[in-house]
Amino acid sequence: MFSTAFLDLPALQGASGTVTLPGSKSISNRVLLLSALCQGTTVVHDLLDSDDTRVMLAALRQLGCGVDVQGTTVTITGLGGQLKHHDAIEFFMGNAGTAMRPLTAALAVLGGDFTLKGVPRMHERPIGDLVDALRLLGCSIDYLGNDGFPPLHIGKPSLKLDAPIQVRGDVSSQFLTALLMALPLAAKDRNIVIEVVGELISKPYIDITLNLLARYGIVVKRYGWQRFTIPQGCSYQSPGSIHVEADASSASYFIGLGAIASGNGIRIQGVGADSIQGDIRFMDAATQMGAQITSGPNWLEINRGAWPLKGIELDCNHIPDAAMTLAVMALYADGPTTLRNIASWRVKETDRIVAMATECRKLGATVEEGQDWLRIHPLPQGQWKAASIHTYDDHRVAMCFSLAAFNADQVPVRIEDPKCVAKTFPDYFEALFSVAHASTQDIPVICIDGPTASGKGTLASRVAQALGYCYLDSGALYRVTAYAALQAGLTLEASDEVRISDLARTLPVRFEGDSVWLGRDDVSDAIRTEQAGMNASKVSVLPSVRISLVALQHSFQRLPGLLADGRDMGTVIFPHAPLKVFLTASAAQRAERRHKQLISKGISTTLDSLRADLEARDARDSSRSVAPLKPAQDALQLDNSSLSIDASVAQVLDWWKAKQPF
Predict the structure, then answer these.
(1) Rounded distance, CA 4 to CA 43, Å?
(2) Which of its termini does the chain have fewer beta carbons within 10 Å around, N or C?
(3) What is the DSSP letter of 88?
């Protein structure tokens, strides 16, 4: 997951390949709570691992449920409809509406001494209609802040079940879902009737709730969308095990991607047209706009069809979350697109009507908005603007606007706070980069070159981490090559040059923070010995090995960008890199740094000998005939003799930001 302050997406040209989606957030949190209310044990397979599900799991642990997490398989030992803990409990619900609303209702019916709160935005999301319905039922709920909004305190109820329970349906379908999940706990000796006041929005989410309730033994009778009857004497029964479908809302981004991007199409694994999730009907809207979609059991395939896409007018009540993706697809259409009946957008993680309109305008689009509608005009070639997209701590805003990087004017797009996607799809950007492709010239490279012990490796890895870029430690490649050759039974002499060269061309090496991996093996310690350094020197003089490693180094230029350090990155390997830094420090300062490193490893040495060795190595590196150590003509020199690593990182980031169009 990208945890950077921002993520710059270079101009993307096309996409093809397969994406496996994470589990549905809506299904995951419903299944967790239903499993907790059952007697016995339920094994939940393919559960979404995200911020919202972690919030729910934490709450269930606080209530005394058994929770055993093994990857995406979670075993829940239920409460059997009875609370085990009666002490005062405070629950932190983050910004997870799918956890806050149903848990509020369940705890209010069961009764206790509970406080539920969340992040500041959660305290701005309305819950008054659910609280009103629960109070009419006899539940004890008090507002601890503003009326109609969390945080809440829940006490012991005096349930009154004679009359139908009324709840508004035109603000959030989660209020009705919460009642449908909580009230079977009280239906021991009578039917319980729920009546919806006003038009029920997001009806497909209620279908999910009813479908899952049936899986847990609660068959609710539905009379249109206005009246629901929970049968007398029903009780929750564990299904034993249950699989969570992949998230159909998350599928919308890759359906949109397949409709926009040229290439061989996108295959989505984990959800198909027969999904129980209403957002799967996003397929129909995308098809109206021109996408070509085929489906099978648990999969979808999407290809670009009509181009440009077709502007449409659509009532989006049935796909409120997925419809956000249509707003960005509309930028690629042949005329305006109008999205109607989206008032619920205003009470989500942010006011999504305002957010989508504001960010589309940053890209150059003309946008009109009303209380419950949005009209987006397309952006023809020549009118796209590079934009820094504010994401409002809203995962869907971040994911939607990643599609803007496929624009016709090949301008980059910055996504602020990309880690907000952790709410539902922590690895979203990794999934996007696995199928998207860009022209090599559009994938940015930052080179940091410098002499031995200048600190270029530490600086480069820190800058790469700050930008979310791939990292290449070119010096380590020679060490890894020598290590791999010896492991393969080769000598490091010229007699084995061809075989070492062949091996080097396809070394499965990767750099993760301070670790160096060769295939599945962490070889960090093995390649950082003095002997490994001498071995690297032996293979570095073999011409064909150097040629193979140049090709390997070029292969590291991958999305979203590359940070490469070494001695000839800016002069030989990536001469067209937009930012080249030549890191320097005095021999005395470098000797002192190296001395501290060696002493910490228990290696005895002296400052004078280290300094003499570094000065001799500088002379050799600067005078060698192949790729001598020297700054590129357009390199910016950074003397870090008296700078901290944080100050050096900040300087490189400032230089990089100054080159961006945002």
Answers:
(1) 35
(2) N
(3) -
Helix axes 97-110, 25-37, angle to 10 degrees: 20
Q: How many residues are present in the chain?
A: 662
Q: Where are the domains of the chain?
A: 6-22+251-440, 25-243, 443-469+560-662, 474-542+551-556
Check 51, 321, 473, 568 and give the catalytic one: 321
DSSP 21: P
Are 291 and 268 spatial neighbours (Cβ–Cβ below 8 Å)?
Answer: no
Question: If you classify domain 6-22+251-440 with CATH, what class do you get?
Answer: alpha beta
Residue 4: CB atoms within 10 A of its CB come to 19
Q: Which of 224, 277, 280, 196 is nearest to 31 (CA)?
A: 277
Measure the CA–CA gap between 165 and 135, rounded to whole angstroms: 10
Is-above-0.85 flag for pTM? yes
Q: Which two tokens stand for residue 37?
A: 């209310």
The question of whether 321 is a catalytic residue gets the answer: yes
Count of alpha carbons within 13 Å of 602, Cβ hemisphere only?
1
pLDDT tens for each residue of 306-349: 999 999 999 999 999 999 999 999 999 999 999 999 999 999 99
Judged by DSSP in three states, 182 sits in helix
Question: Which string of DSSP letters, residue by residue, matches 483-516?
Answer: HHHHHTT--SSGGGHHHHHHHHHT--EEEETTEE
Quote the tokens at residue 566.
């070494």
Q: What is the pLDDT of residues 513-546, one digit of tens each?
A: 789 999 999 999 999 887 998 898 889 889 999 9
Residue type, 178: A
Q: Which among 189, 193, 188, 185 is positioned nearest to 213, based on CA atoms?
A: 185
Give the Cα separation of 572 and 629 in Å (integer). Answer: 10
> Which CATH code fits 25-243?
3.65.10.10
